[in-house]
Amino acid sequence: MSEMLGLSGIEKTYNAGKPSEVQVLRGVDLSVARGEIVGLIAPSGAGKSTLLHIAGLLDVPDGGRVTIAGEDMTGLGDRRRTGVRRAGVGFIYQFHHLLPEFTALDNVALPQLANAAPQAEAEARALALLDKVGVAPRAGHRPAALSGGEQQRVAFCRALANRPGLLLADEPTGNLDPETSDRVFDTLMGLAREEGLSALIATHNLDLAARMDRVLRLEAGRIVPV
């Protein structure tokens, strides 16, 4: 299988040159193949969020190289990085970050409209995704009227709205109770498989990580054997 995401020698230091300097990433190497779902486990403060932000072009490493779908992201300008991120990368966080004034349908349609999709097409895609995760009957409700599990399912759909090739998730079910977390994670995995996504999913839950194709561990700024 060809590679969807490649990180090579990734380094990141905060407050460089100051007494409070913290080196978070110390030469991280990892890859995610097309269609592969990889789990990332790490203790708190190990740098997993920083790593995901760099992988998703939200942050720039101090050293190393990021490739997405075979394209080297090193040295790209902000506009090009934004274009790659908007079209090719989906993000899911621990908290859903849905826009409270919009319905579930609108929240999933909006990223498509921002990518210049026709409204009818965006709404049809949004409804189809919501149907796949069992939330279509709630499409007209705002986030406050949805349960925690429903909100996170809508967030999954929003992340996939523009048909990205790569999904990055940071503790995507960490804000849910164990039973709901288990059900919602199964939904995420099913949706990712159906859409043919490559995914890097950070989680503290070893049982959830074990359901993925492969598991990596980030410790002391490096990838170590699990």
UniProtKB/TrEMBL annotation:
Biological process, per Gene Ontology: lipoprotein localization to outer membrane; protein localization to outer membrane
GO terms of molecular function: ATP binding; ATP hydrolysis activity; transmembrane transporter activity
Keywords attached to this entry: ATP-binding, Nucleotide-binding, Transport
One term under GO cellular component: plasma membrane
KW Glycoprotein (keyword) present: no
PANTHER family xrefs: IMPORT ATP-BINDING PROTEIN (PTHR24220), LIPOPROTEIN-RELEASING SYSTEM ATP-BINDING PROTEIN LOLD (PTHR24220:SF689)
Record-stated family: Belongs to the ABC transporter superfamily.
Name of protein: ABC transporter ATP-binding protein
